[in-house]
Specification:
By secondary structure, the chain is α+β, with helices and mostly antiparallel strands. It has twelve helices and twelve strands.
C-alpha cells in the first residue's frame, strides 16, 4: 500500500529504525530482500570458482619465447590485461591488481571438474599442475607469497522478480542476479539495472504512476539476463575446442557491443517502457543470440579437438568489431538507424560463421555424424535466413572472414 517501509539498521549493539518510500536492496550475496520475500531462485548454470592472491607481479610475457607471440603486441602490456587460460570445462584467470599482487582464479563446470578436485589451496595447486602446469609452476615459485584462498560454490543465482512498482522495492547487483564471471558481466548488469531503477524512482518521486513501467522494466531485465545466461550455460565444454571457442568469444563480444553496448550508451534500456514497438526488435536479437549459442554447441560436437595457435586480430581490415566499437562510443546521431544497422551486421556476422562452418563440414563425407549435423544446419530455416542475409550483405558491405580460425572461407570477395 501507500504506507512507508520500515527499516531497522543495526550498528554494533545499537539498533535504529527509519522509514523509506522505496527500498533498493544492494546487499550482494546476502540477498536480504529476495530471501525475506521468498523470491530467490537457483540457476541451471551451476559452475564453481576458487581464487587466490599471490603477492607477486606474475608476468605472462615470460611464459613463451616464441618471437611472433612476443612481438605481436605493439602497444600495451599483456601482463596487465586479464589473461584467460582455457581448457575443456574450465578457465583460469590471471589478473594483476593495483596492489602489486596477482589474482589467480579457477572457474569450472562440475560436469568436467568437480569442485572437490580444487576446493583447497593444495588441491587447487595440484589441479593446476595437471591442467595448467605453467601456471602451477609460477605459483610454486611464489609459494610463500600466496596470501589467501577463497571458494565460491554454485556462484550463479536467479530471482523471480527484480522490481515492484506497487510495493516500491527493487533489487540490484548480486542481491538480484549473478550469472558468471567470464566477460565480467556482473558490473554491466549492475549499471543496466541501476539505470532502470533510478529512472523508475525519479519518476515516482515526481508523482508519476510507475506500476506498469516497473513491470516492463522487470521483464526486460530478466529477459536480458536469461539471454545472457545462455552465453554461459552448458558452454564450458566449448572451452576445450580452441577453434569454436575463439569464434564464440568474438561473437559474444560483437553481440555485446552491437546490442547491449549500443542500447546502454544511448540510454535506451529505460526507454523501452515508452516504446513497446521496439520489443519485437529486441526479441529478434535475443532469438539470434540463443540460436547462435546452440550453434556453437552443435559445432563443438562435430569439431575435432585440434589445437589451434591461430591469432585472430579483432581490428584487422574490414573487421566488424571496429564498426561495433565505434558505434558504441557516445550517442548515435540517429539511434534507430544505428540499431537496425547493428542488427543487420550481427545477422551478417552470424550468417558468415554458419556459412563458413557448413561449407567446411560438407566436405567431410566420410563422417556420418558430421554430415548429419551439416544437413540439419542446411535445412534449418533460421540459419538459412542468416546465410542468405550474409550473402546479400556481402555484396555491398563485405566483412572479413578471418575471424573464423581453421575454416576455409566459404565466400570470396574482391
Ligand atoms: C568469481 C567471481 C569473479 C568476478 N569477477 C568480476 C570481474 O572481473 N569484473 C566484474 O565486473 N565483476 C566480477 N564479478 C562480479 C562482481 O564482483 C559482483 O557482481 C559485484 O561485486 C556485486 O556488487 P554488489 O554491490 O551487488 O555486491 P557486493 O559487492 O557484494 O556488495 C554488497 C554489500 O552489501 C553489504 N551488506 C550485505 N548485507 C547487508 C545488510 N543486511 N545490511 C547492510 N549491508 C549489507 C555487504 O557488506 C557488501 O558491502 C565476479 C564475481 C565472482 C563470483
Amino acid at each position: 500500500g501507500e504506507r512507508p517501509h520500515v527499516l531497522t539498521v543495526q550498528d554494533g549493539n545499537i539498533s535504529t529504525s527509519t522509514t523509506a518510500r522505496w527500498v533498493v536492496d544492494a546487499s550482494g550475496r546476502n540477498r536480504t530482500l529476495a530471501r525475506q520475500l521468498g523470491l530467490r531462485r537457483g540457476s541451471e548454470h551451476n559452475c564453481n570458482a576458487v581464487w587466490l592472491r599471490v603477492a607477486a607481479e606474475v608476468d605472462v610475457n615470460q611464459w613463451s619465447d616464441d618471437p611472433s607471440w612476443r612481438s605481436r603486441l605493439t602497444e600495451g602490456d599483456r601482463a596487465l590485461s586479464t589473461n584467460h587460460l582455457m581448457g575443456e570445462g574450465y578457465w583460469v584467470w590471471l589478473i594483476r591488481l593495483a596492489s602489486g599482487a596477482t589474482s589467480v582464479g579457477i572457474v569450472a563446470d562440475p560436469a568436467f571438474h568437480p569442485l572437490e578436485r580444487f576446493n583447497t589451496l593444495a588441491k587447487a595447486q595440484a589441479w593446476l599442475g595437471e591442467y595448467e602446469p605453467q601456471c602451477a609452476a609460477v605459483l610454486a615459485q611464489h609459494q610463500n607469497s600466496i596470501k589467501d584462498f577463497r571458494v565460491m560454490r554454485h556462484y550463479s543465482h536467479a530471482v523471480a522478480k527484480v522490481y515492484d512498482g506497487r510495493d516500491r522495492w527493487c533489487l540490484t547487483g548480486d542481491a538480484a542476479i549473478f550469472l558468471d564471471p567470464l566477460y565480467s558481466s556482473g558490473l554491466d548488469l549492475i549499471a543496466i539495472g541501476n539505470g532502470l531503477i533510478t529512472d523508475m524512482l525519479v519518476r515516482e518521486l515526481d508523482g508519476e504512476d510507475v506500476v506498469a513501467r516497473a513491470g516492463i522494466s522487470d521483464s526486460l531485465f530478466r529477459s536480458l539476463t536469461e539471454m545472457w545466461l545462455a552465453v554461459y550455460r552448458n558452454q564450458y565444454g566449448l572451452m576445450g575446442s580452441p577453434i569454436v571457442m575463439s569464434a564464440k568469444v568474438i561473437w559474444d563480444i560483437a553481440f555485446y557491443w552491437g546490442f547491449l553496448g549500443l542500447l546502454y550508451s544511448n540510454g535506451r534500456f529505460a526507454r523501452v517502457a515508452d516504446d513497446p514497438g521496439v520489443v519485437p526488435h529486441l526479441q529478434g536479437l535475443i532469438d539470434l543470440s540463443n540460436r547462435m549459442q546452440q550453434f556453437f554447441r552443435e559445432w563443438a560436437a562435430v569439431e575435432p579437438r585440434r589445437p589451434s595457435a591461430t591469432f585472430v586480430d579483432l581490428y584487422s581490415p574490414m573487421s566488424f568489431m571496429s564498426t561495433f566499437h565505434t558505434a558504441m562510443i557516445g550517442r548515435a546521431t540517429d539511434y534507430t538507424a544505428q540499431f537496425h544497422a547493428n542488427a543487420r551486421l550481427l545477422r551478417q556476422v552470424a550468417g558468415q560463421l554458419v556459412e563458413t562452418v557448413v561449407a567446411e563440414k560438407c566436405e567431410r563425407f566420410s563422417e556420418d555424424d558430421v554430415m548429419r549435423q551439416a544437413q540439419a544446419w542446411q535445412s534449418d530455416a533460421f540459419l538459412r535466413e542468416l546465410r542468405s542475409a550474409y550473402r546479400h550483405e556481402q555484396l555491398t558491405n563485405p566483412i572479413s572472414p578471418d575471424w573464423v580460425p581453421g575454416c576455409v572461407p566459404a565466400l570470396e570477395f574482391s
